[in-house]
Write a structure and sequence with these properties.
Layout lengths: L9 E10 L2 E11 L5 E4 L6 H9 L6 E6 L10 E4 L10 H11 L4 H14 L15 H13 L5 E5 L7 H16 L3 E5 L3 H7 L2 E6 L2 E7 H6 L4 H7 L6
Parallel strand pairs: 3-7, 3-8, 5-6, 6-7
Antiparallel strand pairs: 1-2, 1-4, 8-9
Helix pairs in contact: 2-3, 2-4, 4-5
């Protein structure tokens, strides 16, 4: 059997995305490679969500190109995305996962065990019979992570996954992210929370006005930011 094609590296080459002539993403060149998590930071409106959608393949650039494993056409069978406010199906927690497993092509006989594995992975064992929409915000986010992992992606995009969560729920989601990354899944995540970026990131990409203004190893970025924008953002000043 032929091995599945890899989606990494994901390469954005001089990518711009315009809306009514206004650049939302402006001449971004970037390579996302296998390894520890990459975290996008920056103020609201900087373009973080749009960049994730471009890398996922949900939108197409106005100019430039995006390739996955060297291919310009690659269906998202090996990548998944979780948004800030995931939609829960009107089903049980387990039912949401069975739906995701069916969509991923997992054979029916293997689904029950896989549901149990995914619930355990995200800390929701014992929640299978509960209505998904009755879960707390943090529990729903962890269920959304489990659904995304149902397809066993090579790359997992996360758009502000802990926004509006309390500290306990944030920690639970971050624990799942670290576990996923330790299993070799490439995590590419956006956040405006510098503390979270310090806890999760190996690589930092600072975005401002649709551009990447600094890209660096996380330790170096926080110890000695190279650009005025990075220094101001770390200091808590507004980037406008």
């Amino acid at each position: 059997m032929r091995a599945p094609l890899a989606d990494l590296p994901i390469v954005l080459d001089n990518v711009s995305l315009l809306a009514r002539g206004v650049p939302i993403i402006d001449q971004v060149s970037l390579a996302l490679v296998a390894g520890a998590p990459t975290v996008l930071i920056g103020p609201n409106g900087a373009g973080k969500t749009t960049l994730l959608r471009l890398a996922m393949g949900l939108v197409h650039p106005t100019r430039g190109s995006v390739t996955w494993g060297g291919r310009s056409e690659a269906p998202p069978t090996r990548r998944a995305i979780v948004f800030q406010r995931p939609v829960m199906l009107r089903r049980s927690t387990s039912g949401n996962l069975r739906y995701a497993l069916d969509a991923a092509g997992v054979r029916r006989g293997a689904r029950a065990d896989r549901v149990d594995e995914l619930l355990a992975l995200v800390g929701l064992s014992g929640f299978g019979a509960r209505a998904a929409r009755s879960l707390s915000g943090g529990e729903q986010q962890r269920l959304a992570l489990a659904r995304a992992l149902a397809k066993e992606p090579q790359v997992l995009f996360l758009d502000e996954p802990t926004a509006n969560l309390d500290p306990a729920a944030t920690k639970a989601v971050e624990d799942v992210i670290r576990t996923v990354a330790a299993r070799g899944i490439k995590v590419v995540m956006s956040t405006h929370d510098l503390g979270e970026a310090r806890r999760i990131a190996s690589e930092i990409l600072l975005m401002h006005r649709g551009s990447i203004v600094e890209a660096a190893d996380a330790a170096r970025f926080f110890a000695g930011p190279a650009t005025p924008e990075a220094r101001r953002f770390i200091a808590g000043e507004l980037l406008v």
